[in-house]
From TrEMBL:
Ranges of residues in domain EAL: 24-277
Protein name per the record: EAL domain-containing protein
Source taxon at top rank: Bacteria
Organism field: Leptothoe spongobia TAU-MAC 1115
Amino acid sequence: AAKERGKNQYAFYKPELTEKAEYRFRVEQSLREAVEKQQLSLVYQPQVQILTGNIIGVEALSRWHHPRLGQISPTEFIATAERIGMIKPLTEWVLRTACNQAVAWKQAGLPAIRMAVNISPVHFLDKDLVSLIKRVLDETGMVPSELELEVTESIVQTDQQNLSIFRELKDLGVLLAIDDFGTGYSSFASLKHLTVDCLKIDKYFINDMLIDNKSKILIGSMIEMCRNLEHKIIAEGVETEEQCHTLQKFGCETVQGYLFSTPVSPDEIAKLLNNNVVHGSSMWSYSR
Ligand code: C2E
Ligand code: MG
Ligand code: MG
Ligand code: MG
């Protein structure tokens, strides 16, 4: 009977594992040709100044629509790209597409805004990153000070190699942001060695902020610390006016989240930039 059960369990678990492995395999295989087949695209999420409602920047976010597998989450395919050594060509495509888009908006007469691009920590440690960024800036005509690179806290170490990459990037004139701030391993002390332009407070803190008093205290302290260190702050994942209002009271001036806009197409951004105010929200009534 035990043997019978064992057999059944085996029969029960095996298909599931195989399906997952097969899915992963198919994702890996198709990712290699996704760029060529033009299955990747970028959407852009506004970063909004609470006081004015102005869009001061956008974050470029990758999307992959596979003809058979459908929409695949970036969390899934970025991790896959890192695993199979595809992250460099993918980052290059993202950088080039985002910079071309920023230049196109400006050529269309729209106000200049910052373009933020995510850089995988795996790629950040690569010696070629600096030259890749330089090449893309040169080839697209992107103004360096309008490009912001978002890296997660895992690269924030006082490690010599990291520090010199940071310096080289700063020398290029691009901006640097720490993404998902507060969730990583970095000690606050390591911040003093870095010339970071912006810290993005992770959406998990924002999400819990009004439910859990500890999160609220942590956010208040993070914002105060950033202000004292003269880092810009962006709160990520802001979904309600109440969250926005609290953040503003704490001294956070810029937010990114569904309250203002989900990530949208370049055309949608152009429309929003045309009257550079995000309508449909009463945000700025707080500051009056
Ligand atoms: P991230 O860089 O922290 O990007 C913010 C994520 O939060 C995005 O998810 C965005 O759609 C989502 N978000 C924005 N506002 C809200 C909100 O109000 N509520 C909630 N619940 N979510 C919100 P997305 O686009 O699924 O991307 C997930 C992650 O995948 C990104 O997190 C980033 O780490 C990575 N990623 C996306 N595109 C790229 C890329 O081109 N390169 C690299 N290296 N990573 C990327
Ligand atoms: Mg990001
Ligand atoms: Mg983030
Ligand atoms: Mg993230």
